[in-house]
Amino acid sequence: xxxxxxxxxxxxxxxxxxxxxxxxxxxxxxxxxxxxxxxxxxxxxxxxxxxxxxxxxxxxxxxxxxxxxxxxxxxxxxxxxxxxxxxxxxxxxxxxxxxxxxxxxxxxxxxxxxxxxxxxxxxxxxxxxxxxxxxxxxxxxxxxxxxxxxxxxxxxxxxxxxxxxxxxxxxxxxxxxxxxxxxxxxxxxxxxxxxxxxxxxxxxxxxxxxxxxxxxxxxxxxxxxxxxxxxxxxxxxxxxxxxxxxxxxxxxxxxxxxxxxxxxxxxxxxx
Length: 271
Ligand code: ASP
What we know:
Blueprint: E1 7-11, H1 22-38, H2 45-59, E2 78-84, E3 89-96, H3 101-111, E4 116-118, E5 137-142, E6 148-154, E7 175-177, E8 181-187, H4 189-195, H5 197-206, H6 211-226, E9 231-237, E10 242-246, E11 253-256, E12 261-264
Parallel strand pairs: 3-4
Antiparallel strand pairs: 1-5, 1-11, 2-3, 2-6, 5-6, 7-8, 8-9, 9-10, 11-12
The structure holds aspartic acid.
Aspartic acid (ASP) binds near residues 63, 135, 188, 189 and 192.
């Protein structure tokens, strides 16, 4: 669908979602969306994405920040990334033990020297819940200046090997932004890393494919190669097109512009 600008779109992870506390998930997503959107008054898409994601990291409701799942040694190792489509600057952090990974990723992006930095020091923080949380979180925003920013933050996959890094902090896989489009992906990192859906969506849009068709075709391609149940994507284009597709049971997601906020979990399109 075509939204007015500015607009922010969020997801709370592609997954099974049935039997989970969806009220809590959607109300947290809604509040994150509200807080992110509020940032457009003062700042750009960068602040909108970082505020929305840090709120979700702090909520303990999702597999990100305080709600992060544990690895096979019972420790938390989080990954996050952010990209500014206007400047093509990107920053990611991997194996983060505490704090807000998306804010740390923003620092890497602002510094500009490197794109991906691993956190080698620090003790794993205590988490609020153990593996029964929601899922990875992501946000994409387009502001009145036409700046598109995409970000993703995750605790990864429960029981993962120590040191495992998924798709979420990898530009072109877990997130990507250009002057045309911004995308955040979620699902099984080991699948997403091989398909680079976020980069492919930008390529499709650059040759004239509509955003919604681009997301749909990339998700279908992943299903064709690896089967279903492994990916979800949200996206925004420079025209204000907003789209979400997934091949899992559900993917909590919201979009917000100045007229409305709409949140969905299972099937159905934004309207
Ligand atoms: N993609 C994330 C990872 O593999 C997990 C998720 O999106 O749920 O680390």
